[in-house]
Amino acid sequence: KRKPKVIRTDGGPQEGKRGKGDADQDGRYYSEECEVDLRDPIKDYELYRETCQELQRLMAEIQELKSRGIKDNASEIDERRIQSCVHFMTLKKLNRLAHIRLKKGRDQTHEAKQKVDAYHLQLQNLLYEVMHLQKEITKCLEFKSKHEEIELVSLEEFYKEAPPEISRPAITLSEPHQQTLARLDWELEQRKRLAEKYKECLTSKEKILKEIEVKKEYLSSLQPRLNSIMQASLPVQEYLFMPFDQAHKQYETARHLPPPLYVLFVQASAYGQACDKKLMVAIEGSVEEAKALYKPPEDSQDDESDSDAEEEQTTKRRRPTLGVQLDDKRKEMLKRHPLSVTVDLKCKDENVLHLTFYYLMNLNVMTVKAKVTTAVEMTTAISAGDLLSPDSVLNCLYPGDHGRKTPNPANQFQFDKVGILTLSDYVTELGHPYVWVQKLGGLHFPKDQPQASCNPFPLHLNIELGELTGKLLRSRLQSRLALHKQFASLGECLGTVAGSPCRGELTNVTFSGATALQCHPQDSGGVHGASLQLEAPWAAGDILLSCSAKLQAAVVLNPGYSTLPPIFSLCLNWKGERTSSNDDNIRAMESEVNVYYKELWGPKPGHQLLTNQLQRLCMVLDVYLETEPHDPSVEGPKEFPQEKMCLRLVRGPMRLKPFKFNYPQGFFSHR
């Protein structure tokens, strides 16, 4: 190893020891901070320029001497090098002085800034005190006493009725303030007297009510005793779960049902007793009117005089117009049977679907009306108003069965005679004539057009059809209730969807186009049958700032939700309008919810699919905005900084973004 060179000088301190010269040098070094205040910066700058010019001159001379290559020039070169070193030392000192000046300037600026902040804080405190005092002054100026709202008696009545110790005419007549106080005292005395009278009246009222209650209890106790005597066998029937009396009454009433309703009643009762204890079947309507329909017309030959008198009265009356006659014929054509069959389907969560079946006697078709009763009171959402509507809750229970047209081809000829265009104008009053309702009643009609090989209804017995229909009805009720809850939560606009940590915020949910859940065929885009259309716009960005990106989602819900998934169509308004037709990434976002919906299904039966799809849309919207390149022409930070973890921002010639979410790793990747 090479030993380090040690330079020794005469009279210098030994190596490793600190001498007096070093202490003097440190003193000189630290005295430069004081020297800064004594030196002129402009002169230092001029010295810096002269030193740099001198260095340039010396370097040029050294270069010229070296280029000559004369050996005698070595001493001159050494002299110029020594001069250059001296100039370098001067530059170092000027550099140290410049740094010291900079540090002092920063310290002075910081101190001045602190003083300005202190003065500004004092100013804000004073302004706040001024504002507070102005508010207090305004309150005092706008103060209104409550006695101004009290209707006091007139001055004449006051001086006439009030005692002298309260009215004090000698003082109150000359001083308005004392007069007001005296009138208030008199008002207080009157109210105390009225309050005592009111209490006395209440006590007397309570006594009378107690006497009435005792008499009512005595009268009401007589009715249960009479019922217990008349129906002594009913407790035994209830104990043995054999309601023979009730069943006997139902069967007696069922004898007056028309054949289709009778078939429905028998099949539904048998299925409820054997397979479904939560299915309740009952008969409603007037039995007397049903009996009157089957009575033969009475012989009118014995009442010739009465008929002659009626003819004379009819000739005197004006004949009804053609419009009135048509209205009467229409009412007769659409007349329902007096009796109807009600079926109550109860679910596990105690929600009930009430179905009332009617029979149109002249049209020979059956109709049904639906009503939903929930175990818990549902919050009414504007966007979910038609989900549980009686006119739409049963639409398309089987594919293609809209319930807007009569299934009996013969009815069209009957309608032409009375001027009825279609039965859909009367379904709100009469009920919907679904095809499955006719099947349950044993009514079978030929189709208007030849059907394909696939039949929406199974060609089995009515019992099997009834079992399948019951399952479909319960599934429809549960799915609609789940949608109702989701729409209620989405309509509140309380931040992110389902607690998602996404930047996308759901602002509102509104229906667009046709009335919600109205049956109309959608033959394009893979949507068939009746559909529900709604719009859900998102706004991305800070909640406190104005949103620059807005995602408009048009959703089509099939009545068979959640077996058939919703279909989304997106439109992003951000730096122009972006749709699936002009942006491949928007098409990829639609695929995430339309094609890969099975990943969002969740636990069976998948009623939360719509909420999960909306949450996934919020996530992919964040990915779309965060992975957009920053525009260099725009000053400031990026509008949507990246928060999501993505393995790769774009891929392929179409520059697709990573929309696939990998759980539980928590990152996004390409499919």
From TrEMBL:
Residues 1-27, 292-322 are annotated as: Disordered. Residues 15-27 have a biased composition (Basic and acidic residues). Keywords: Nucleus. One of its GO terms (molecular function) is mRNA binding. The keyword Ion transport does not apply. It is found in: Nucleus. One of its GO terms (biological process) is mRNA export from nucleus. Pfam families: FmiP_Thoc5 (PF09766). Residues 299-312 have a biased composition (Acidic residues). PANTHER family: FMS INTERACTING PROTEIN, THO COMPLEX SUBUNIT 5 HOMOLOG. Belongs to the THOC5 family. This is THO complex subunit 5. It comes from Pterocles gutturalis.
